[in-house]
# Entry
Amino acid sequence: MKKTVLALVLTLVVTGLQPLTSQHMKSIREKAKWMVQEPKTLEEVKAYALGEWKSISVELRPTEDRTGSGTIQPTYLRRHFTYLEDNTFIGTITLYGDNYGQMPLMEFEFKGDLVWGEAHPIVDGAWKIDYVLNKGFAVTPLHDQSAQLLNAGLPEGMSPFEANIKKDILGKAFPMFHIMEGQIVSDYDLIYFKNRLLFMGAKHVDGTPFDKVENRPHQLQIPLEKVF
# Structure
């Protein structure tokens, strides 16, 4: 009787583990195949981009002062981008008040369409890409002072921001971000993959945003790593 029970238990364990082991091995093979790829053509780049990518660490970026003073401010942030099969994307940028990401200040979530362009001259395999923020543009203050800052330039008729509460401002006027009523914001960027890393365009040293075709970047930024 004991041997029968033991055999049944072993059978259940083996049959239960077999699919998991097979699936795990398939995942390892797929990852290994993905890691040796060096996408160059537009179709290869599109396929390679699919999935999630995130910052390796907190990044430093020059940012134009929103008040119009002309001064350039250091901005500390992390990025998290997801590329979907229907040529859409979800991007999240989290701002911090320190070098090491210990003081989160604000989070932006962007959703929209991807418009793929021609090859970018910076390096073979780089392509022009436009991020059209036409499906979502959400702002979440992560600190009371951040909420106060947003509320100081609040458009008429918009309810106040609250800490840790997401507010979608898609299509709404927001003078602090230089956005007019009904305006669809686009980012004119580039994309490139090397050594299993995703490179977007480096921000202009004067803080100029990528809000116009002529402002498209010419160099590569700190890369993102794949989230498996």
